[in-house]
Recover the amino acids of this structure.
Protein backbone atom coordinates (compact mmCIF):
# COMPACT_ATOMS: atom_id res chain seq x y z
CA UNK A 1 0.00 0.00 0.00
CA UNK A 2 1.33 3.44 -0.89
CA UNK A 3 2.30 5.77 1.94
CA UNK A 4 0.17 8.59 0.59
CA UNK A 5 -2.86 8.14 -1.65
CA UNK A 6 -4.61 10.84 -3.60
CA UNK A 7 -7.40 10.89 -6.12
CA UNK A 8 -5.50 11.88 -9.29
CA UNK A 9 -8.55 13.61 -10.79
CA UNK A 10 -8.66 15.46 -13.00
CA UNK A 11 -10.97 17.95 -11.39
CA UNK A 12 -12.42 20.43 -13.87
CA UNK A 13 -14.30 23.31 -12.25
CA UNK A 14 -15.55 26.74 -13.36
CA UNK A 15 -14.10 29.93 -12.00
CA UNK A 16 -15.60 30.81 -8.65
CA UNK A 17 -16.30 27.21 -7.69
CA UNK A 18 -15.27 25.58 -4.43
CA UNK A 19 -13.26 22.39 -4.79
CA UNK A 20 -11.94 19.94 -2.20
CA UNK A 21 -9.16 17.39 -2.42
CA UNK A 22 -8.63 14.54 -0.01
CA UNK A 23 -5.55 12.54 0.72
CA UNK A 24 -5.00 9.52 2.97
CA UNK A 25 -1.82 8.30 4.58
CA UNK A 26 -1.14 4.75 5.69
CA UNK A 27 1.60 5.13 8.27
CA UNK A 28 0.57 6.33 11.71
CA UNK A 29 4.19 7.45 12.23
CA UNK A 30 3.49 10.32 9.86
CA UNK A 31 3.58 13.51 11.84
CA UNK A 32 3.94 16.50 9.55
CA UNK A 33 1.85 17.17 6.50
CA UNK A 34 2.00 19.60 3.62
CA UNK A 35 0.29 20.56 0.40
CA UNK A 36 2.56 21.40 -2.52
CA UNK A 37 1.52 22.90 -5.83
CA UNK A 38 3.18 21.84 -9.07
CA UNK A 39 2.61 23.62 -12.35
CA UNK A 40 3.09 21.75 -15.61
CA UNK A 41 6.77 20.97 -16.22
CA UNK A 42 7.79 22.95 -13.13
CA UNK A 43 9.13 22.12 -9.70
CA UNK A 44 6.81 21.63 -6.70
CA UNK A 45 6.37 24.62 -4.45
CA UNK A 46 5.05 24.67 -0.91
CA UNK A 47 1.45 25.80 -0.77
CA UNK A 48 0.85 25.33 2.93
CA UNK A 49 1.62 23.18 5.94
CA UNK A 50 -1.25 21.30 7.56
CA UNK A 51 -1.83 21.55 11.29
CA UNK A 52 -4.03 19.44 13.53
CA UNK A 53 -6.20 22.42 14.34
CA UNK A 54 -6.69 23.19 10.66
CA UNK A 55 -5.33 26.27 9.01
CA UNK A 56 -6.39 28.81 6.45
CA UNK A 57 -4.46 30.95 4.02
CA UNK A 58 -6.71 33.23 2.04
CA UNK A 59 -8.91 31.05 -0.19
CA UNK A 60 -7.15 27.86 0.89
CA UNK A 61 -8.06 25.78 3.94
CA UNK A 62 -6.20 22.65 5.05
CA UNK A 63 -7.50 20.11 7.54
CA UNK A 64 -5.94 17.10 9.21
CA UNK A 65 -7.88 14.19 10.70
CA UNK A 66 -5.43 11.97 12.56
CA UNK A 67 -8.05 9.45 13.65
CA UNK A 68 -9.02 8.73 10.06
CA UNK A 69 -5.55 9.47 8.68
CA UNK A 70 -6.62 11.89 6.04
CA UNK A 71 -5.75 15.41 4.98
CA UNK A 72 -7.89 17.75 2.95
CA UNK A 73 -7.43 20.92 0.95
CA UNK A 74 -10.33 23.24 0.20
CA UNK A 75 -10.06 25.95 -2.42
CA UNK A 76 -12.79 28.59 -2.43
CA UNK A 77 -13.60 31.00 -5.25
CA UNK A 78 -11.35 29.17 -7.71
CA UNK A 79 -9.23 31.25 -10.07
CA UNK A 80 -7.84 30.31 -13.48
CA UNK A 81 -4.40 30.59 -11.90
CA UNK A 82 -5.25 27.78 -9.47
CA UNK A 83 -4.96 25.28 -12.34
CA UNK A 84 -2.11 22.98 -11.32
CA UNK A 85 -1.37 19.64 -9.71
CA UNK A 86 -1.67 19.54 -5.92
CA UNK A 87 0.64 17.15 -4.09
CA UNK A 88 -0.15 15.79 -0.65
CA UNK A 89 2.99 15.17 1.41
CA UNK A 90 3.62 13.34 4.69
CA UNK A 91 6.75 13.26 6.84
CA UNK A 92 7.41 10.68 9.51
CA UNK A 93 7.94 11.39 13.17
CA UNK A 94 11.58 11.78 14.07
CA UNK A 95 12.80 11.50 10.50
CA UNK A 96 14.80 14.01 8.56
CA UNK A 97 12.72 16.18 6.32
CA UNK A 98 14.15 14.19 3.43
CA UNK A 99 11.88 11.30 4.22
CA UNK A 100 8.88 13.02 2.78
CA UNK A 101 6.34 10.82 1.05
CA UNK A 102 4.57 12.40 -1.89
CA UNK A 103 1.19 11.45 -3.25
CA UNK A 104 0.75 11.20 -7.02
CA UNK A 105 -0.96 14.55 -7.08
CA UNK A 106 -4.45 15.74 -7.92
CA UNK A 107 -4.83 17.65 -11.16
CA UNK A 108 -7.07 20.72 -11.12
CA UNK A 109 -8.22 22.69 -14.14
CA UNK A 110 -10.23 25.85 -13.60
CA UNK A 111 -12.09 27.01 -16.70
CA UNK A 112 -13.53 30.46 -17.45
CA UNK B 1 18.26 34.86 -5.79
CA UNK B 2 19.74 31.67 -7.25
CA UNK B 3 18.33 29.19 -4.69
CA UNK B 4 18.79 25.61 -5.97
CA UNK B 5 20.37 25.32 -9.40
CA UNK B 6 20.41 22.12 -11.44
CA UNK B 7 22.19 21.36 -14.68
CA UNK B 8 21.62 20.20 -17.34
CA UNK B 9 17.93 20.95 -17.85
CA UNK B 10 17.55 18.41 -20.66
CA UNK B 11 19.68 15.44 -21.65
CA UNK B 12 19.37 12.40 -23.87
CA UNK B 13 21.55 9.45 -22.96
CA UNK B 14 22.18 6.17 -24.71
CA UNK B 15 21.77 2.94 -22.77
CA UNK B 16 24.95 2.17 -20.88
CA UNK B 17 26.27 5.72 -20.84
CA UNK B 18 27.06 7.53 -17.61
CA UNK B 19 26.45 11.11 -16.59
CA UNK B 20 26.33 13.44 -13.62
CA UNK B 21 23.48 15.77 -12.77
CA UNK B 22 24.85 18.81 -11.01
CA UNK B 23 23.10 20.54 -8.13
CA UNK B 24 24.21 23.53 -6.13
CA UNK B 25 22.47 25.73 -3.55
CA UNK B 26 23.51 29.10 -2.18
CA UNK B 27 21.32 29.14 0.94
CA UNK B 28 23.82 27.32 3.20
CA UNK B 29 21.29 24.53 3.84
CA UNK B 30 22.62 21.37 5.44
CA UNK B 31 19.90 19.11 4.06
CA UNK B 32 19.89 18.26 0.34
CA UNK B 33 17.95 15.69 -1.67
CA UNK B 34 17.53 14.10 -5.05
CA UNK B 35 14.06 13.03 -6.19
CA UNK B 36 12.79 11.53 -9.39
CA UNK B 37 9.28 11.99 -10.75
CA UNK B 38 7.87 9.66 -13.36
CA UNK B 39 4.92 10.84 -15.49
CA UNK B 40 1.70 11.07 -13.47
CA UNK B 41 3.45 9.94 -10.31
CA UNK B 42 4.63 11.50 -7.09
CA UNK B 43 8.22 12.22 -6.20
CA UNK B 44 10.43 9.38 -5.01
CA UNK B 45 13.53 10.02 -2.91
CA UNK B 46 16.75 8.70 -4.46
CA UNK B 47 19.40 9.93 -2.03
CA UNK B 48 19.67 12.60 0.61
CA UNK B 49 22.36 14.28 2.68
CA UNK B 50 22.21 15.91 6.09
CA UNK B 51 25.52 17.72 5.68
CA UNK B 52 28.87 17.71 3.94
CA UNK B 53 30.42 14.25 3.96
CA UNK B 54 27.17 12.48 4.89
CA UNK B 55 24.82 10.80 2.43
CA UNK B 56 22.12 8.16 2.74
CA UNK B 57 19.87 6.12 0.50
CA UNK B 58 16.26 6.97 -0.10
CA UNK B 59 13.49 4.84 -1.57
CA UNK B 60 14.97 4.21 -5.02
CA UNK B 61 18.81 4.42 -4.88
CA UNK B 62 19.69 1.60 -7.28
CA UNK B 63 21.60 2.76 -10.33
CA UNK B 64 22.64 6.07 -8.75
CA UNK B 65 25.43 7.46 -6.63
CA UNK B 66 25.94 10.75 -4.85
CA UNK B 67 28.64 12.67 -3.06
CA UNK B 68 28.58 15.71 -0.78
CA UNK B 69 32.05 17.19 -0.49
CA UNK B 70 30.77 20.71 0.22
CA UNK B 71 27.63 22.19 1.73
CA UNK B 72 26.75 23.78 -1.59
CA UNK B 73 27.05 20.87 -4.03
CA UNK B 74 25.24 17.55 -4.26
CA UNK B 75 25.84 15.86 -7.63
CA UNK B 76 23.92 12.76 -8.71
CA UNK B 77 25.76 10.19 -10.81
CA UNK B 78 24.05 7.73 -13.12
CA UNK B 79 26.20 4.76 -14.01
CA UNK B 80 25.21 2.53 -16.94
CA UNK B 81 22.03 4.38 -17.84
CA UNK B 82 18.91 2.27 -18.40
CA UNK B 83 15.55 3.19 -20.00
CA UNK B 84 13.93 2.84 -16.55
CA UNK B 85 15.91 5.91 -15.51
CA UNK B 86 14.02 8.10 -17.97
CA UNK B 87 12.42 10.61 -15.65
CA UNK B 88 12.45 14.14 -14.32
CA UNK B 89 15.01 14.66 -11.58
CA UNK B 90 14.62 17.30 -8.90
CA UNK B 91 17.33 18.41 -6.54
CA UNK B 92 16.21 20.14 -3.36
CA UNK B 93 17.50 21.62 -0.15
CA UNK B 94 15.65 22.36 3.06
CA UNK B 95 15.59 24.55 6.10
CA UNK B 96 13.06 24.01 8.84
CA UNK B 97 9.82 22.74 7.37
CA UNK B 98 10.36 24.07 3.87
CA UNK B 99 11.96 22.31 0.94
CA UNK B 100 13.24 24.35 -1.98
CA UNK B 101 13.35 22.54 -5.30
CA UNK B 102 15.50 23.16 -8.34
CA UNK B 103 13.78 23.55 -11.69
CA UNK B 104 14.29 19.93 -12.67
CA UNK B 105 16.39 17.95 -15.13
CA UNK B 106 14.58 16.04 -17.89
CA UNK B 107 16.50 12.88 -18.71
CA UNK B 108 15.68 10.44 -21.51
CA UNK B 109 17.56 7.16 -21.92
CA UNK B 110 17.25 5.60 -25.36
Amino acid sequence: RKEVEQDPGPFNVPEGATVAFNCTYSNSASQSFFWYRQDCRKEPKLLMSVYSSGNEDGRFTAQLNRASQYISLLIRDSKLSDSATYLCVAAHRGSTLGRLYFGRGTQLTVWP
Amino acid sequence: NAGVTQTPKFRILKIGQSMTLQCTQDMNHNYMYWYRQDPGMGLKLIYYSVGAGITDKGEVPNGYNVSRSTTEDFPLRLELAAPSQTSVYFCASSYGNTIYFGEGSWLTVV
Remarks:
- Residues 4 and 25 of chain A are 4 Å apart (CA to CA).
- Chain A touches chain B at residues 4, 8, 32, 34, 41-46, 49, 87, 96-105 (CB under 8 Å).
- The mean pLDDT of chain A is 89.
